[in-house]
Structures are given as C-alpha cells and as structure tokens.
C-alpha cells in the first residue's frame, strides 16, 4: 500500500485585522522535521508511524500551519495547494490519501479552502482512491467536502485532546476502505445554529457521550458534531452533524437528521454562559482556594484575535487586585524592551492595546522585569500525546501586585508553563488570567480551584447576535429563535 499525506491548516477569523501571509505558516516538507521540529508531534508524522507498522510506503508532502488570524492571501493558499498537488501527481499511483486539515480556512477568493483542496486531490487520484480527512470541530463542513472526500472525521473534544484518537480512527477506516472492506457513505445535517459549545459541560458532554455510543451501532462508522466557527463569514457557516455509515446513505442521512434535531432542541441550553469582567472578578475573589483561573475568551489568539487586549488587566489594576498573573499579552515591542532592560530593571513600559480597536487602550505602566525566557515553548494535549507550541521570547513584568507575561509569537495560552517559564509559580497566585476560549482547560483545570469564563470586548467575543455577517446566512439561531421552524 502506498499512502499519501499532507496537512494545510489555519482557522480563519474573517473579522480579524491580522493578515495570514507566507511567513505566518510554519512549514515542513517531505517529512523533514528539522525545518520545524514541533511537527514531529503532528498528525501526519503519526500517520507515518501507523503506516510503518503495517509495512506500507508513505509519501509525505507539505505540513503547513498558521496561527488563526484573518484571511489567507490568495497566492499563499494557491501556492501550498499546488505544491501538495504537484507532490501527489509525482507520487502516483497511490492507494489512499490522508489529509489533516482545519475546515475553517478562508483565503481571498476561496470561502472553502478545504473543499477546494480536497476536490483538487480527487481530480488527481480519480474516483476510486479513498481520501480520508481529519478536521478540527471548529469547521465549516461543506457539501463540496462531502462530495469530494471519502471519509471526514472531526475532533469530538474541546479542548481538542482527542486529535490522535480521531487520527487512528480515520487511518483505520480509510485503510479498510482501500482494502475493499468498507464503502463509506456520508450525510450532513445543518442544525441552523451557530455557537460555541463546551463538551466539558452539560448538556453537550452527554450528547458527545451518546454520539460515541451510537458509533458502536451496526453499520455506523463515525459521527461528528461540527461545531462551526462563528467568526468565519462564509456560506458554509453553521453547526452540523456528519454521519458516516458503511454503504447506507439513507441510514447516514436519517441518523444525521435525528442527532441534528436533538442538538437543535437543546439550543437554548448548549451555549455556555459568560461573566462580565467585573462579575468575573467578583466571583474569583469570592472563591476560597487558589488559583482561580479566569479565561479571557474574547481575545483568544487561537480564534484569530490579536491577543493584546487590556480590558481585564486594566480592571485588575483599577480595582487594586493583587496576587494576580496575566498570561499572555502579545507585545513584541514590549518584549524587546524588557530583554534590553534585563531582569531586575524597573522601567516605564507601554503594554498591549496596539493591534486594533478591539484590543482596547495600551496601558502605560511602571514595571519591574522579573523573568526572561528566549524561545519559550508551551505544550498542549494529554501527557501521552502532546504537541509543542513555540511562544517566541517571553518576559515577565510586575506592577502593583500583578504579574504580566509578554510574548513575541502570537498564540493562545495552553499551559501553566507560560507562567513557570518566566519564573512565576502559578500555584502561588490567587488569580490567573489566560487568553483562551477553552484549550487552556486541559492543563489549567488540573491546578485550578475554579474556572471562570469572562466575555470582555474583543475579536472573539461570544456575542453571536451582533457578529456583522455579510455572506453567511443570518437565518440562524441565536439570531432568530427557530430557524428550522419546529
Ligand atoms: Zn478548534
């Protein structure tokens, strides 16, 4: 068997002020992980191991990943797509293709990059070669993707701690298809909703558990709940249920609709509730134990937000709250100045609020530099299946009882390492403020006495009624109460 693999991924926040260009992507080509060592932990590298165990030949093409931000430049998307297609053409004949994609990548002129890429791959390999695709659950699953791929599986968990579990499933199902043992049939049901859902909380937790149970039913190969990505203004926007059965399109369609309508019936309860800044701080101060973790969900770089908003930090300082640490604020200029000043130096520093209107005002503070770490890294995922994420240079500065971690390579906060890297013991702080919508939960929930979600102003504020869509269908919950007319 000859397996062809590639990965092209970014999550596009079409409202983000940050362009996604050529330099935004970390790159590995043809399995050479020396060019970007963190990709040795990638799904593509994992698939190669599984193929090696079967004695298969693997042809790896491109792995390209960019931190979520605004639209990808047209020439950049086309360049990477064409590179993958050229590698695939050179590798022919292949027996199966596995693609590790995101599902919410948008480029200028391409509302559905993944659909376009899968269609291009299909054109090269023809109708008989199975194409398996793994997507993030924050994806816009489109009809084009369903038509062109053989099997699509999305993550089930958020935080995405099941990336490798899903990668194994996809590998096995696609392999069995290539061997002629399965004939996957996919069906998609659009729930008419947009939203943000936490499978760590009820009722979504039980719903996901039920999906896993149903996957054991005869003929059912896989069930995915595509949450959608609400900050992508594209025609394919929406929360959708995808069912894959073995050779039975009617069974797939019926189960997708049944599960989609079940989720829809819970629409008023599946969205988490969020604190305002002050109610979140009040709630945090009322907790006995520490540290309390307060998530700034509205400025999540992992959803394309700048990561330099100052709203919560400003209120911490105005209210005189001490024993708090804020991680992290994206500010390469402040990092450069802190490194130049050195540990122990006290200086006036302008912090955050630089990237756009949604970042709030910069804060002019007199700070002491308490920690520096060049080329810091944080980890994400389970201990046995973790991925490394570079943070660039990091600096810890202290002012008025508040520690602030500044960093130079934008990305969301995954791990308490963002504090300990620069000498801040997260267990010794009363309050930890993190810029993340939910991925922080995997590692911070292990040390948190309580987790509090705060909706401040920001580029990923979970205020879905007021997102100014121009392209997406606005006949969706919660913009309208009952879009399916039940
Ligand atoms: Zn995601």
Query: How much is the average pLDDT?
Result: 96
Helix fraction by DSSP (H/I, runs of at least 4) = 25-40%
Strand content: 25-35%
Rg over alpha carbons? 22 Å
CATH architecture of the largest domain: 3-Layer(aba) Sandwich
The H-and-E topology, N to C, reads as EEHEHEHEHEHEHEEHHEHEHEEEEHEHE
Bound molecules: zinc ion
Task: Determine the number of helices (DSSP H or I, runs of at least 4 residues).
Answer: 12
Largest β sheet strand count, sense and barrel closure: 8 strands, mixed
Number of domains: 2
CATH class of the largest domain: Alpha Beta
Would you give an account of this structure?
This protein is α/β, with parallel strands linked by helices and 486 residues long. 26% of the residues lie in helices and 26% in strands. The chain has two domains: 264 residues, Response regulator (Rossmann fold, 3-Layer(aba) Sandwich), CATH 3.40.50.2300; 185 residues, no CATH class. The chain has an eight-stranded mixed sheet. α1 crosses α5 and α2 packs parallel to α3. The longest helix has 18 residues. The structure holds zinc ion (ZN).
